[in-house]
Amino acid sequence: MVSLLWCSPGRSQPSVLDPIPPLEPYPDLRNQGFELSTETEYTLGAGDVIRVTVLPVGDFSGEYQILVDGTLFVPLLGTFPVQGLTLTQLTEFLTQQYRQYVKRPSVTVGLVSPRPLKLAIAGEINNPGSYLLPIEGGQKFPTVTQLIQQAGGLTTVADLDNVTIKRQFQGETLTLTLNLWDLAKKGQLKQDVTLRDGDEIIIPTQEIIDIGETRLLSDANFGLSANQEINVAVVGEVYRPGSYRVIPESNTVSGSQGNIRRQPPRLTFAIQLYHFHKLRLQMFIL
């Protein structure tokens, strides 16, 4: 195999790499009549494994891992920072650098193995906190609803109209607002965005509870966790006021051969009225 190298006459090999070109600012499409996209290009970070292909000199090709300090080492060019760059930006940078050694180089950069995603979720979620989700074996990146499932599901007062994601993208903090009701009611998959490393998801609290929406949410695969007991306090004109633990109802679906489907806890009162007396009842979910 013959490697073709090209150098300018009288030009010595540079000892220092040219600086990485500045990042382009994230375009604000809202002022141009477009909706802000909820998807952003993948940015590189420590732990990513990439493959660099350089033609016509195959000796410069190979797979490389980004180091913990966000730098990358490739043959001939040495070590340089790539933290926060997109694959497109790194391709352009490597093409520019290899032009010093190869005539009309064709450089491609591909993601072989992405780093594990460290995500945070807070608010009206059963198990808030930080989650480390590995991406292995050609798996797709997790979505918002998959992280909600991983975190134990939503609470009964979750506001799905204003779910927010805070994302670091090319030195800026982007705030994405999602309406998961559009996913549950209308099937809009664009609301179920794929997550990126470092995303922070916040589920706010709704002020007015709609019982109909609560029942609908219990049927969604990312909604309420129907297998948990809840505490209910009953006070007022009742025989036995106090705190009660209510467990989910178990309904066997016909033809399911014993498979049990859980329903959210429901309290049914049978009230008899005597001589037009009215009973006053207040319920508070603890």
Automatic annotation (TrEMBL):
The keyword Coiled coil does not apply. It is a multi-pass membrane protein. The keyword Kinase does not apply. One of its GO terms (cellular component) is cell outer membrane. Keywords: Cell outer membrane, Ion transport, Lipoprotein, Membrane, Palmitate, Polysaccharide transport, Porin, Signal, Sugar transport, Transmembrane, Transmembrane beta strand, Transport. One of its GO terms (molecular function) is porin activity. Residues 118-203 form the SLBB domain. Belongs to the BexD/CtrA/VexA family. This is Putative polysaccharide export protein.
